[in-house]
Structure formats: structure tokens, C-alpha cells
Amino acid sequence: MSKSIRVASDDIWKNRVDKVNSELFTLTYGSVVAQLVRDFKSDYNKVNQQLEKMGYNIGIRLIEDFLSKTGTGRCVSFKETAEVISKIGFKIFLNITPAVTNWSSDGKTFSLILDENPLAEFVELPDDGKAVKELWYSNVLVGVLKGALEMVQLEVEAHFVSDVLRGDSSTELRLKLIKILKDEIPAGED
Amino acid sequence: MTIYSFWIFDRHCNCIYNREWTQIIPQHTTDSSSLPSGSINSKNSEDAAKLLFGALFSLRNIARKLGDGFDEENTLNSYSTAKYRAHFYESASGLRFCILSDPKTQHLQNVLKDIYSNIYVEHIVKNPLSPVDFKPGSKITNPRFIRLIDNYLPTI
Q1: Is B130 left (phi over 0), alpha (psi -120 to 50) or beta?
Q2: What is the pTM of this model?
Q3: Can you tell me the ipTM of this complex?
Q4: Which residue in A16, A59, B19, B72 could disulfide with A148, CB within 3.0 to 4.6 Å?
């Protein structure tokens, strides 16, 4: 099954998505982050929050695009969700396939290792002693994942635990399933 | 083949778009300006919308409970009565699309999927000024969307 997922997502990436130059995207994102840093006067925690919020709003729209292109139904397990996120989601939108690892024993938490990160190309964090400790440059991804998963009834908690930009050896994004939300049912006549 | 009406319900179970045609759609329209008359968004909060939603919702739940395999979920595609047939498509994000047609019409699943990916996603989701999570009582009024649906459905 994981092989067929890969073939399908390769096909979608090649034939069914509109693409833009990745450098254009990288630099646009870069200017958004730079502007936020300026707006919040280098309060990096606020920048992280804002990026996550922007990501959330992107995610709740992106999921519809994702579903209509891939035609995937609801996943039966969180393991399958993880596969779909890394092999289809990241593949068709960013053309990367992060590794899924570090499963917790209850199967509710896993990590995505981003070997290459198109968002963070050409990036060096400012040398003010704070950014390296506080800023999660690609935090928009956290919001995107949260927003998109919430629309398919999965409430997750996501955060970065390491980033090569901060001098870590890898970029790791950790996802934790909080709960599966219930489908809404029509209001009764009472 | 005749299409009577078209409905979209959002994840909060509200009807966000409703198109009803009062006259039979001509099979081969050559003149696209003579679109069939009817009403748009006039019955979103009426009982008809709620009843239709209820019927689809319950049947979908029954279908799920009765036919669930281990590998794939059983889904409701359509049901028909003596007078009409209801075609149903639900996205994983909880949007539900429904077409009511005459009972002889077969398989409109592809049509519904097409509307979802080529019209709804392109002109509602990718339109930053349009909401994606509809508030109760709000509906799709985007003229472009309405025009595309009206152009598309008579051609099938």
C-alpha cells in the first residue's frame, strides 16, 4: 500500500498540480517572516504565534484542495494519517517526503524529519542571540498541519523540536493526536 | 436525463447552496444564454432542505453501519424512489453535494466530484474573500460560482 501511495503522489505532483518557481515561494515566505519580525520588534514568540495562525488559515483551505486532488477518504488510523501527510501531502505541495519516525508507544505521537526544507533555503537566522533560541522559522507548517487535520476531524498538537537553522542536526516536527472530533449532527427540533 | 435540483451542505449540516430548476433542461443547449429558469438559494433553510439532508444523513449512516468492511468504508452513492433519484457525494472534510434527478439517470458520482474539485475548490476555497467555514445561515452567493454551475450541469 505504501508503494501505491508513492506512485499516486508522484503522478499528482507531475501531472495535476500547478507549480511556481520554488525560489519565488521561498523568498516570498522569507519576506513575510522578516516583516513579522519587524512588526513585532523581534519578539520571536509572537512571530511564531502569528506564523502558526497564518498557517492555520492556509490549512483549512489547503485541505479541500488536497482532498479534491487526491480523492483520499478518511484515514482509519493515525499511522495511515502520518503516511498520507508525508508521502502525499508534503509531496504534492512541497515536493519533499519527510521521514515518519519516533512513534510513541501509544501510537499517538510521531515525528516528521524534514531532510530538506524548501521554506528555509537561503536562510540564516539573525545573530542577535535570541532568534536562534526562540524563532521557529518554518512555524507556518505547524499551523497548516493543525488547520488541515482539524477539517478532517483530527485535533492535533504540533510543534518543532529541532531545526537545522538553529544548528541542530535535523529539522524535526512533532505531531500529537489529541482527539478525534465528532462529526456534527443536525440540530434537533427542540 | 433531467436534473431537478442541486444542493451543497457544509460540515455544520447547513445548506450553503441550493439551485432548483423549474423547467426541464433541454438536452442539447446550443444557445447558452437561454439558461433554464428556476431559483437560487431560495430554499436553504426550508424544511425541504432539512428533510433532504436528514434522509441522506441517515441513509449514509445506515450504509456505513451495515456494509463496513475492514479495508474500505461503505459509502452512500445514491438512492432512488419512483419519482426521483438522489445522488450523493461527501468529501472527507464533511462537505456534502447532492443532485436530484429523474430516476433513470445513472451514476453522477463523477459529476459531483468534478463540481467539488473544479468549481467549489477553484472558486470558493481558492477565493480568499469567500469563507470556507460557513457561518450558520450564510450561503454561497458568488456570481461566478453560480454561473459555472448553471453552465456545467445542463451539459452533462
Answers
A1: beta
A2: 0.88
A3: 0.82
A4: A59
